[in-house]
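Sequence in, structure out. Go.
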Amino acid sequence: MSHSPASRSALIDLVRQWHQSGTPWSPSGLGTRLDWGPPLDPRHEVLSCRQLNRVIDHAVDDLTITVEAGMPLQDLQDLLAEQGQWLPIDWPRAGAPGSIGGLVTRGLAGGLRQRHLGVRDQIIGIGLLRADGVEAHAGGRVVKNVAGYDLMRLLCGSWGSLALITELTLRLQPLRPARSSLIVDGELAAQEAFRSELLRSSLTPERCDWINNGNGAWQLRLVVSSVSEQAVENQLKRLESLALQQQLSAQRQPCSDALTTPLDASPPAQLVRLVLPPAQLQQLLRDEAMTALKPWCWELAAGAGCGDGWCAAATPDHQLEALRRSVIGLGGEMTLLKRAAGSTVAAWVDRPSRPLIEAVKRQFDPKLQLSRGRLPGVNQETL
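Output:
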């Protein structure tokens, strides 16, 4: 059953009641992606923060904002845009953006990480509610605050297994009014040479992604932004020249903002997240396990080594397991965010640090009430 308390005090009272009774429950934002990751037990309670959606403080001149975790991402970006600002984090794949708390709980970065770093790097303060109903805070509301334990990085990507995030203080960036994108196409080896030269140059694209629309052909998509159209034009000309040196084609495309994607983002049957060293991406693109997934679409950050693959049709489990083995062999990780009906592929596999992960879990949640079965880095929660 899903619960959505109208106030923070009502939320705290409910959590304390559940702690006394040992009731298992899962934190939730707007509930848009509860089907991601390991499946939740339908008998467990779900606690939504959808009604905790206020702006607590917006220090416009300091480029920081403090909001409650249930604030929808779209509302947050619209509010910031009125002040000429934005939050440089990738929106989650497929469907409505969801809440800021849900995005931080999953901790999934994308192509914007190349220039703006990841989700966890935008958090400078956090408020949380422990499994026993006790509130806690870490960080602060100024960028240079370094007080206390770094709970921000610990909770980012914890999938609700440690605590319920109640509020966040985030660092912001000024909006850049001029923006355009460039699609680079040609031989894969030449594209990799282009990417390597780009990273060694003084050029600073906002993102550089390997994209594949499902036909097996790879392209590089770059987004360039600046304070003026002339600055964008200058960067595009240099990028086009660099592409020409590698005998690649380069086609300009309009780009209204850094969050949109040219690929279909409709809810897929299967969705995976890959993270691996950027230098190993080209080898993965040529890997037999990857090329076997031709119906799949991909968007992988060429400079950050992370991204998503998705498909509208179900893929046999053995093909996904083969891809996971290849990714692990290249020093990376694969998370199955959304699985097809009947699939038995694990969302994630055991990490070498599993004993440490389980020890942290016990410290935060001694009764093991929170998000049972969703402990990142642990294949099957056997606590």
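Check: The CA atoms of residues 60 and 83 lie 7 Å apart. The chain has eleven helices and 18 strands.
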